[in-house]
Amino acid sequence: MKTQKSIILTGIFILSFLLSLESAIAAFNLGKYLRERDPGPSIGKAVRTQYHKQYEVSIKNKCNKPIRVALHYKPITDGQSYTGAGLSEWDTKYWWTLNPGEKSFIETTRNGIVYFHAKSSSGTWGNKNHQWRINGKLENFFRVDMGDSYRAFTQNFTCN
Known about the structure:
By secondary structure, the chain is of the alpha+beta class. It is built from one helix and nine strands, in the order αβββββββββ.
């Protein structure tokens, strides 16, 4: 009888422990869920968790003249899950104007390939292998592979 009672008490203890462990795991997962839904500001910081796979793209003018920059990229679509692909069709955005020495955050994407086109009073950046229209005019872009690691990325523009 005493052995049967201790077995029942041990079973109750184990069951109680497992239930409290399950509650702790659920609370942890709830916190993780909330962090995924509200990542907070991240401009200028690399986003590296498995739930926030993205590149934060910036540009920097290392020329001694002002430049204007265009970007061809795959934007993150509204309403897409951070864990899903979340990429739309290619899009072109323009013009960011940077004075000498200026740096600017321009976009966020989950695709590691982007294309840039830039202009200054001394010339343009781009080649005929990658062309897209800006205001009806065909412009030359150059391809940039940001690598496989999601991170903050800065494209530097230098003059000859």
